[in-house]
Amino acid sequence: MTRRRRVYEGKAKVLFEGPEPGTLVQYFKDDATAFNGVKKSTVTGKGVLNNRISEHLMSRLGEIGIPNHFIRRLNMREQLIKEVEIVPVEVIVRNVAAGSICSRLGLTEGAPLPRTLVEFCYKSDELNDPLIAEEHITTFGWATAEEIEDIMTLTLRVNDFLCGLFTAIGIRLIDFKLEFGRHYEDDEMQIILADEISPDNCRLWDMATNEKLDKDRFRRDLGGVEDAYQEVARRLGILPESGPNDLKGSNSLQ
Asked: Which residue from 47, 175, 61, 65 is spatially nearest to 113, judged by alpha carbons?
């Protein structure tokens, strides 16, 4: 593709202006980060795998009526997406106790929660994404009560669908993070799912062994990060056309 203006660069992705108004190109990097960028490394092929996995999951969600920003994949590392105004709130969905909730509440990792728990965090690396309540969101104008209701409805539908999808391939969906944005078209605004869904922002455990198939392998120095991501892609049936032994792809940015 021709070189385009860089709009935003995050820890794992870069956004460029798209070929048409209202679109962006989302580029997936091989950079691996944890603890809000404190720990950094590179995992060869991670961007390729996350591009394919997120494409697959966003497409499947679109098929059941979950509006999201994905339009189409452009190449091994890039996809065309709808431009949105990101709501500065991260939505954490927890089905099983893992990660920060264990240290916060003294829970045992791996213990099923009595019901699905949805938490909100203020999207700010500088503040370490603090946990917030719905009252914070409305008080500071990050989203309206109606938008929060839309976000909650979509979030629970996404969780129900993904739990079933992953269970069918022998994977337990422990928890995951979602982001949403406001999409404007023809003077209408709609809350839609944005960002990505991949092992970078989902905890995925093998149902038989509890082996971790997600970024916790990087966070906890367990090794085998690339193999774990490949295993998720393999079970989903979406390894890149070049096969599991050639996942490097092009690292050149636009």
From this structure: 175
